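Hello Y.,

Per our agreement to keep a running log of every chain we model this quarter, I'm adding this entry. I've kept the format consistent with earlier entries: sequence first, then predicted structure.
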Amino acid sequence: MPDLSDAELLARFRAGEEGALQQLLERHEAALFAFLVGMLRDHHQAEDALQDTFVRALEHLDGVDPDHLRGWLFTVAYRQAMLLKRRQRTASSLEEDVLPDREAGPLAKLEEHELIQQVRRLLGQLPPAQQEVIRRRVYGGMKFREIAVELRCPLNTALARMREGLRKLRLLWGDHHD
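Predicted structure for the entry above:
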């Protein structure tokens, strides 16, 4: 498959050929990572931004013009890097401006506890493979590469499980809040 164009690989992925996505990600990974390191000046932040780029790519890959995939990926990577920078600035300014911590009232704590319990119940309705990826990413803070290694699956499989699991959670959440 290395001789195939991005458009051909994307068409194969859309047709259900799992290896095509892996090939696409691998083809652009090094260039995107170098770009992100240059923007963020931090190896770990660049890894996080790259993973977020791939997650966003999976979420929106159906609407991408196959002939402009590379440029689109760099645009997504740029946006992810800018979001990361913005979050850091916001966190820094909040740390400086924060008043002494005030404990949340009992009603707020109860509402938060109920929301957490509801999310856990909904998460329990997902297939086990999707649950594992979401738990490791959200609760464990693991990177998708680490998750893939631990679960002994390809990176694109871990990413796809996350995407599908989040999609199902959104649907379940909507069913419970309509």
